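Retro notes (design track)

What went well: tokenization of the new backbones is finally stable.
What didn't: we kept losing track of which sequence belonged to which structure.
Fix going forward: every design gets posted as structure first, then sequence, in one message. First example under the new rule, 379 residues:
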């Protein structure tokens, strides 16, 4: 079977509506493990788990798709182990769509432990210091063993403060690696995403997008943002980058972000997101709510009987007060991080559903202005 034909028959992106004022989009991304209604947010389950939560809890707050990580799973427990146990869906008991990052972000986040050239990136494992080499071909092979629905090309994600030469080299290398990833893919039931790099340089973004479009990926990601640049700079880069990508294919912004970042990115034409913020903040006693951030360690919540968010119907908000949640964190009880993580992910899912409905109803600008005003008033 031709791999390209196999992919085309299992994946499809249906663009249902585009907001005329902003360019915000509503669509449906069909995968072998279900349909994702976009815009959508993926909780991060780096090691095959969204920290502290059961798959049933993710389903209860209407998570559609989760993300896991190639680099981390290759180190622990190993791709061979996951493959022998039936692939990542069976291993983590998640029957919905899964996307695996290629390990390219670790080129940025673990820069002190890695060395990169045109052939591959070589890491010194953050677990035990052992050598771990990741080439484009190996990144694809590992992701095929893991069995995610959506897999990513290996890319080089540079920091925001690198020089012009280093940034241009990262674009060149990312395109070279994308060609090798495309050539090494063997499974027809996985959609391989190309990743546009180029930092905040308009010409390099254009060069990167052009090189990837020639490879005709079923979906495209925007990488190299939220790595140190100011939010307004990121928004400007998205404004220039999204029109460079095919209109009828899914657009995924990697590693973003804050609720206001999601609003701004959707209104520039992005369909899919992931970020550790809802879970990481939840573990650290910070909740995202319709009225802005709530820091539960603050003494103002000692006797507060109200829920985290009166607009939220998640398990946390239906049954537990701010006072109780604060008590859990002060007492060092593990239930606190679990309950606030659950709420934060529920908040992100509800925000995406409301954004999607706003696109379908033609009121994106009104929705964006209302939410930003609410959050700004809480600061």
């Amino acid at each position: 079977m031709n791999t390209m034909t196999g992919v085309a028959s299992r994946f499809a992106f249906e663009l249902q509506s585009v907001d005329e004022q902003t360019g915000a989009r509503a669509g449906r991304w069909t995968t072998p493990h279900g349909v994702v209604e976009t815009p959508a947010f993926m909780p991060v389950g780096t090691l095959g788990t969204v920290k502290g939560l059961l798959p049933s809890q993710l389903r209860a707050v209407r998570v559609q798709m989760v993300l896991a990580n190639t680099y981390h799973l290759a180190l622990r427990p190993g791709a061979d182990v996951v493959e022998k146990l039936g692939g990542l869906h069976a291993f983590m008991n998640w029957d919905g769509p899964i996307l695996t990052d290629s390990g390219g972000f670790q080129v940025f986040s673990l820069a002190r432990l890695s060395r990169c050239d045109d052939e591959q990136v070589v890491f010194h494992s953050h677990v035990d210091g052992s050598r771990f080499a990741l080439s484009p071909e190996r990144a694809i092979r590992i992701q095929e063993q893991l069995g995610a629905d959506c897999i990513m090309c290996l890319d080089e994600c540079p920091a925001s403060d690198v020089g012009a030469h280093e940034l241009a080299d990262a674009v060149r290398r990312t395109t070279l690696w994308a060609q090798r990833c495309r050539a090494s893919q063997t499974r027809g039931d996985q959609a391989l995403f190309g990743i546009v790099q180029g930092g905040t340089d308009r010409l390099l973004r254009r060069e990167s997008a052009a090189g990837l479009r020639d490879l005709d990926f079923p979906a495209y990601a925007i990488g190299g943002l939220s790595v140190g640049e100011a939010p307004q700079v990121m928004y400007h880069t998205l404004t220039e980058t999204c029109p460079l990508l095919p209109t009828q294919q899914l657009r995924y912004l990697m590693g973003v972000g804050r609720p206001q970042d999601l609003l701004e990115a959707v209104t520039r034409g992005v369909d899919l997101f992931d970020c550790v913020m809802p879970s990481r903040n939840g573990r650290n006693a910070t909740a995202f709510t319709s009225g802005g951030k709530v820091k539960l360690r603050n003494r103002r919540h000692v006797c507060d009987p109200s829920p985290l968010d009166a607009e939220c119907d998640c398990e946390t908000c239906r049954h537990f007060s701010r006072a109780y949640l604060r008590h859990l964190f002060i007492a060092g009880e593990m239930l606190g991080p679990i309950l606030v993580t659950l709420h934060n992910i529920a908040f992100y899912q509800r925000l995406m559903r409301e954004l999607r409905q706003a696109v379908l109803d033609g009121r994106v600008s009104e929705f964006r202005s209302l939410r930003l005003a609410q959050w700004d008033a809480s600061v």
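Added context from the reviewer: The chain has two domains: 41-275, 276-379.
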